[in-house]
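Quick start: read one record
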Amino acid sequence: MQLQSIREALVYYGKKMEEDGLIIGTGGNLSAKDEETGLIAITPSGVPYDTLTPEEIVLVNEKGAVLEGGKPSSELSLHLTLYKEREDFSAIVHTHSTYCTTLSALGEPIRAVHYLIGNAGVHEVPCVPYVTFGTDALADACAHAIGQSKAALLGNHGLICGENSLKEAYHLALSMEFVAEIQWRAMSAGAPKLIRKEQMDDALIRFESYGQ
């Protein structure tokens, strides 16, 4: 079985998505790209994460042809398009987390209500207008709207994140949900006071040297 470690990581983070409340049921999906072969491993369509096994992970080439496994996620086109447009993405996590989806239902981007939005590399995470799930049209709209951000809201749908690794993409999804919750709570209480552009510019610089 090819890409064993990547498949195991997808199973692990798929289960974590459910445990951490980022999805309900079989919603959401994850993928990771093997930089050496260019092959992409993606979660299957409609398989519960609590019973998902590495053998059920679907392996496709860059054009989406299935090499191993069954039917891939309905959002395969979205993943493939983002990998094509964003060479800095080696893993993608798509969630239906509550607060990100709430903002997407309002057509609201995630704004600089907390400096952790800097994890996405931008001052504001865009919201893509609603497009039917699982379509090439959604993939194209997301690729156009995401710009240089590592994350985007999908209108009336959820969140998508891309990063250098599956671990980083997953933690980005967690931090975007945190910022989205702060934003929603602040909007419920009044008008959020946003971090100014120059302050976020400074925060983004500090993010570059954060960590070990």
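The longest strand covers residues 158-163.
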